[in-house]
Structures are given as C-alpha cells and as structure tokens.
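Posted in: Structural Biology > Protein-Ligand Complexes

Title: Requesting predicted complex, pyridoxal-5'-phosphate in pocket

I'd be grateful if someone could produce the 3D structure tokens for the following input. Sequence and ligand are given below.
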Amino acid sequence: MEKSQALRYRIAPLEMTPSEFRKAGYRLIDQVAELLCTLPERPVAPNESPATLRALLGSHSLPEQGRDASTLLDEAANLLFDHSVFNGHPRFMGFITSSATPIGALGEMLSAAVNPNVGSSLLAPMATEIEAQVVRWIAEMIGYPPDCGGLLVSGGNMANCVCLLAARKAKASWDVRTSGMSAEKSHRLRVYTSSETHTWVQKATDMFGLGTDSIRWIPADEALRMDAVALREQIQADREAGDLPFLVIGTAGTVSTGAVDPLPELAAICREYGLWFHVDGAYGALAAILLDDEKSAIPPDLKGIREADSVAVDPHKWLYAPLEAGCVFVRTPEFLRDAFSYHPPYYPCDEDATGSLNYYEYGPQNSRGFRALKIWLALRQAGREGYAGMISDDIKLAQELYRVVERQTELQALTQDLSITTFRYVPPDLMPGSQESEGYLNVLNAELLTRLQKSGEAFLSNAVVRGAFVLRACIVNFRTSLEDIEALPGIVIRIGREADAAIRPGKQKDQERNIR
Ligand SMILES: *Cc1c(COP(=O)(O)O)cnc(C)c1O
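-- Reply #1 --
Done. Output follows.
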C-alpha cells in the first residue's frame, strides 16, 4: 500500500478489531471470575523476594516489536494471580485495605472504555453529574450536609491535603495563594492534632510549606483519643505567644486502633477560637451510617462529623471501592473554589447559567479520571441498608475477634475500636510488665507477624499501643466470616510458639533439655 493509502485505511498497532476485543475480553472475564471464586483456597500473600519477581519479568529493554493483545493479557493475569497479596481474600485483615467490589472491577473497565475527562463538564457531562451524586450520597451516609462541596481524589492522604489547603486559604489573613508562605507571619501558622494522627499531616505541612514544626502534637488519653483539655491549653498558650492557630484535625477512626476523637468537643473549641475544624475520617467516618441504629454501639462522638468544616473519607476503605478513591467534603463549596480555581484562557468552560460543574476548579487535579463510577455502582448495588449491614458486620467480627482472643491464655487482647482489634502473643512462661520481658515481647511479635504474613494463612499488620508492638486485625472486608475469625487464634498461637522457639535466647536449649 502506498503511504497515503496506508494513512487513509489506518490500522494502528494499538487498535483491536471488535472480534479480537470480544475474544480477549470474554477470556479475561472468565479468568477474573475464576480468581474471585478460588480466593479462599489461595495463599493470602506470596512469599517471594523482589529478585525472584524481577527475574520473572526479565531485564531486557522494551521489545521492538509488539505482540498479540490476548496473549499479553493471559500473561499479565498469570503474573498477578500467582504473585500478589490478595486483599480480597477472606483472611486479609491487614492495614486498612478493603476487599474490592466485583461491580467496581467491571465499572473500572466501563469507565476506562468511555474514558471521560472529569476535569470539566464540557468533557464529561454525565460523569460529572455521577461524581456529584456520589459525593452527595456519601455525605448523607456520614451525616454531613449534602449541599456541601466535594470531589474525589486518589485517597485519604490527598483528600486530607485538599482540606488542609482549603483551611489555609480560608483562615490565612494574607493572600496565601499569591504571596505563599513567604509572608511575614506565615511561619507562625499552627495545626493541632493528636499524636495518633496518620502521617498525612506531616506530608501535608511539609509539602505545602508550613513545615512539620507547625504541628502541635496534642497527647492522647488512655483510650488513644485526643485530650481536649490539653488542646485548649495549647491553643491558648500559642495565641498568647503570638502564633496563628488555624486548624484542628480530629480523627474519626485512627489508623492504629480505630479510636474516635471527642469530635463534638473539638468542634466547640474550634467555634470558640474561630479555627477550621477538619475531621480525618478516611477510615472510620462511614461507621456514622450506624449512628441511628441503637443496637450498634458505635462511638456517639461520630456525631461531631456533622460540625466539621471539612472531612476526608476513603471510599477505597469502608465503601470497598477498588483502589484508588478518596473523597473530600467541605461544608461551604466556595472555600474549595477559593483555594483552587484559576481561569486560564485555554479553558473557556467557566461555570455558567446552566449550572455546569468543572471539577478542575475545586481541587489540585486538571485532567481527572472517572473514579466515581465504581463507587456509584456499588452504592446502588448494596443500597444504604446493604452498606450499613456490611459495616456493622465488619465491626461485629472485630468485636468477636477480641472475645475469642481474650479466651486464649497465650494471647493478650489490647484494644477494640470500630473494626480494629489489637492483641499479641505472650508465651505462657513469660510475665509481661518488666522492661526485659516487654522488650522481648516486641521482638517476638514482630517476628511472629513476619512469619504469619509469609505463611499465606492470614494477613495481619501491626500497631504500637503504649509502647507495645502488637498484632492488628482491621476488618474492612465483606468476605471475612466468623469462621475466619475463629481460625485466627489457633494460627497465631502456632506461629507464635514457633517464633518463640526460634528466637528466644536459651529457649532452644530448654527445649532440647525437655526432649532429653
Ligand atoms: C488510610 C488513612 C489515611 C491515608 O489514606 P490513603 O487512602 O492511604 O492515602 C489517612 N488517615 C487515616 C485515618 C487513614 O486511616
């Protein structure tokens, strides 16, 4: 074919014919369906070194020639099915990473196929409205005013960052968007949060020029909740010293133990001192869906979310959305626009009389993917009732775990809040409490955790509770059942004994003596 003819009948290397696409797509769907139904039989996590995985991929350069799409999808599926940590496995209870909704997986394919750019409603008319509906619905679930401003971002860190920027713009007495943090008083801005807050606050104060020294770490009480009395004293002292308190961050469900700060009290302090009240509800805010359920026994302080100026929630945690999705809520939508909007000449799509909504004006991103679809589909599949049931079941299972752990003499239960339970293995011949035994218990439980993760039998992560390294189960997993919970103590005790025998100084000798 002549060159001009080749361009006239162009077949690009990335194009797939309808029949190729169907064939590859149906095959992939079959493989994914097989993965989902065999999850419980698979190890939760592989036990392989990065070097092994790199060797599988090879170190050659990008191949010069392309290959058949269907074969490549087969290869990719095999690589991922055989060498992944499955957070959709019923026995995955680590970190705060949920099992992902199957409808979300299908939704991701649909959204990638249509590929709307949800930066502006000109480019994504329906997707923009679906995102707005998702924001409203999640606001309703957490008891936040549904006419708030909000948008989806990549996760909790980014959602919290966006709220911090909205707070800074709203509260700085100078034009912080123009003169930035070089204004004379800017180094005196102060952020208040508890020592249990997630590290996003360090990243955010660092990235946006406040510096981590701007953070006032307020101590937490015995229940690991922010001490409101200490907060008030610190704000008062800072004001007297000429500092500029502007933001208090309360957490609805701390990352380590699921503690809920005294949010209504924090809100009252913020009102009194004219500070922005932000709630980091990345993990726990959605438990507020159970506030009206008298039997649920969730912390009533979750009611304080309603009073926040801004809230961050992670749909990829307790809404079980496939990664990534974080959600920003700001009570007064104009505060988001005040913090992020510019009107460049190359985007002639300002909001107009028709009420069009351009998300690029409400957050840091310009081009934006259609994160809302996977959430929208799942919200409608389960409904409010379905979600309340799943969240409540996750909490009940975590509470049950605490009870079954308490019954074991070799296990010590430490905390139980929302759907997080922490505990540790304590060998029967060891008395916890002394500095020496506590030091050893930390080492032992760290070793136990590594062995457990490598075993593929179940996946937990850790927390440090009042200086103790403890095992931590966080259930944001609609596939976990009572059977998985009841199996856990036995697994942990067996691996705990093995770890103890392997690492305790003198222990092996004891055992050898016993055998003789
Ligand atoms: C998970 C979490 C974050 C961070 O969210 P990502 O989605 O991982 O970015 C922040 N705060 C809390 C309380 C969290 O649980």
